[in-house]
Design brief:
Strand content: 15-25%
Shape: globular
Radius of gyration: 30 Å
Order of helices and strands: HEEEEEEEEEEHHHHEEHHEHHEEHHHHEE
Largest sheet: 6 strands, mixed
Number of strands: 17
Structural class: alpha+beta
């Protein structure tokens, strides 16, 4: 039983002061609008000793891969260009709740002479949940204190870890407003729950998202989704309300194709992307660099869903031309409308029926969500086909707008298409949240576990020799005063011997073991390579590990 205690006035005053500081900290906290991450500006005060301002946008999704952190450096005053070239080294530290640092990434940002604003994107590897960010900025080896900040943190809208078995979604549609405008609209809708001029142009992706619910939010009702849970699929949502639902998810993003980056690594966190054939064709013709990034991303193994394949899949040829995919059937011998694409099997349809699709927090509308049919046989004409594209997979849906669709059909797709395309751990062969039993099979030859037992034996023998045996021999010789010499001398001799042995055995160089798989397409001249690399360095490189973007 707890007993009440009388606290001294000084303790109460300190608690009150801490509470007041906490209130001010919350009131002045940087913006944190997206599913996860933070946005802030530097310097925090009114002085600009470096003559620069910096805006950091670390908002993103919680998924394995590289999270792009967008940096914008501007001259101050804004209309005053740089008089000379400047070079900044920006170091980002990520961690959890500000208690420890998980990752450290640095990048050089060039500020050309005559420019006023420079933008850069730093790719931060994300292998687990991180909820704090620190930034250090250096110029000429000197730290710029006004452009540095420590311990910025944010709350986790989901849980402490994500489930790698659930895919991260990227929904692409040209009707989605620009990123900042979208954030403003969704914030206003969350506040008022009103949409003055509702529109219904965006695909209602909730039925697809419901196959992979965020269990932590739904079980405990925590985070942002507690007040803004998705309404039942049977109820129509306006575009702004739908964007709010997707924005509150920690593993889904709805964006316009024109905002796709020009580097595929910036979308490496996504496992599944959806886009209409009309939007895909428009992206290919108007923004070839963004289309190339999407093509490169597809070649690395994930799943791209293209809808609007036409009646009887008449537009499969157009999809193949966009991605330079070789025909699966010889020219002139194609007698079926599927053109050799894979037809989902009846077994996968039966497996989809056996999987429970009910979500306790999302009641199903009988008019749209049918219960599992009694017939085991799938429909005569499947709603989708799929084929390989490099190491990735393209799924074509015949319907012009398959959303919201039935959960059974979306589940059928997940059962028919191999899991390695929409599960990150299956695609890469490694998991950051579960055990990796084959880890020891990929180490550098000759490098294994630390010899713990051998070390314990050597330490025990050394202790016996330098202790009792040394004392016994010196006592018989009546030279115990020599213990002041023999003990440190023996310790130095043994330590030097061990260090010399390790230096000779390991050397000073860095060794690497690579197992790679390359898929070459001679017709298109493209290649996709997946490699597992194990590095062993006897001495850690001073400049860290540098990996090229390609």
């Amino acid at each position: 039983m707890f007993r009440p205690q009388h606290l001294p006035p000084s303790y109460l005053s300190r608690c009150l002061a801490a509470f007041v500081l906490l209130v001010f900290a919350i009131a002045l906290a940087p913006d944190c609008h997206a599913a996860s991450g933070i946005e802030f500006k530097l310097p925090a005060g009114a002085k600009y000793p470096s003559g620069l301002t910096m805006q950091v946008d670390a908002r993103g999704i919680d998924s394995n891969g590289y999270r792009p952190v967008r940096i914008t450096v501007s001259a101050f005053p804004a209309n005053k260009p740089h008089k000379f070239d400047r070079q900044l080294r920006i170091v980002l530290h990520t961690g959890r709740l500000g208690s420890w640092r998980d990752r450290r990434v640095s990048q050089i940002v060039e500020l050309p002479e005559g420019s006023t604003t420079t933008r850069a994107t730093i790719l931060v590897p994300q292998q687990g949940m991180w909820t704090s960010l620190s930034i250090d900025t250096y110029e000429g080896g000197e730290k710029l204190l006004d452009l540095s900040q420590t311990g910025l943190s944010w709350a986790t809208p989901n849980s402490w870890n994500w489930d790698e078995t659930k895919p991260a979604f990227l929904f692409l549609d040209y009707n989605v407003p620009p990123r900042e405008e979208k954030l403003g609209l969704t914030q206003a809708f969350e506040t008022t729950q009103l949409d003055a001029s509702p529109s219904h142009l965006l695909p209602d992706v909730r039925a697809l998202m419901r196959l992979y619910p965020e269990e932590e939010n739904q079980r405990q009702g925590t985070g942002r989704n507690r007040a803004n849970r998705p309404t039942p699929v049977g109820q129509a949502l306006s575009d702004i309300a739908l964007l709010t639902v997707v924005g509150n998810s920690t593993r889904s993003v709805m964006s316009s194709p024109q905002e796709l980056p020009k580097r595929w690594l910036e979308i490496s966190q996504f496992d599944v992307a959806t886009i209409s054939l009309a939007d895909l064709t428009r992206l290919h013709s108007t923004q070839p660099e963004q289309f190339a990034a999407l093509h490169d991303w597809l070649s690395t193994g994930p799943l791209l869903i293209v809808y609007g394949g036409g009646d009887k899949f008449a537009n499969l040829t157009e999809i193949e031309k966009l991605f330079n995919l070789p025909p699966l059937e010889p020219a002139g011998e194609s007698t079926t409308p599927t053109r050799g694409w894979t037809v989902p099997s009846p077994e996968s349809f039966a497996a989809a029926q056996q999987t429970p699709l009910n979500d306790p927090l999302q009641p199903v509308d009988p008019s749209l969500e049918e219960s599992a049919p009694k017939a085991v046989q799938p429909p005569r004409t499947p709603p989708f086909l799929f084929r390989g594209a490099g190491s990735g997979c393209v799924a074509a849906i015949s319907a012009e707008n398959p959303f919201p669709g039935r959960s059974l059909d979306w589940n059928w797709m997940s059962k028919a298409i191999p899991e390695c395309h929409w599960q990150w751990s299956r695609r890469t062969g490694i998991s950051f949240s579960h055990g990796n039993g084959d880890y020891w099979k990929f180490l550098v030859p000759g490098v294994g576990r630390a010899p713990v037992k051998t070390f314990l034996v050597l330490v025990s023998v050394f202790a016996a020799l330098i202790g009792p045996l040394n004392y016994f021999l010196l006592a018989r010789a009546r030279r115990l005063y020599l213990l002041l010499i023999t003990v440190p001398l023996g310790a130095v001799l043994v330590t030097t011997s061990l260090f010399g042995f390790a230096l000779i055995a390991d050397g000073m160089s860095t060794r690497v073991r690579i197992r790679s798989y390359a898929e070459l397409d001679q017709q298109t001249g493209r290649a996709s390579v997946l490699s597992w690399q194990s590095y062993y360095a006897a001495v850690a490189p001073s400049s860290g590990l540098r990996i090229p973007e390609d």
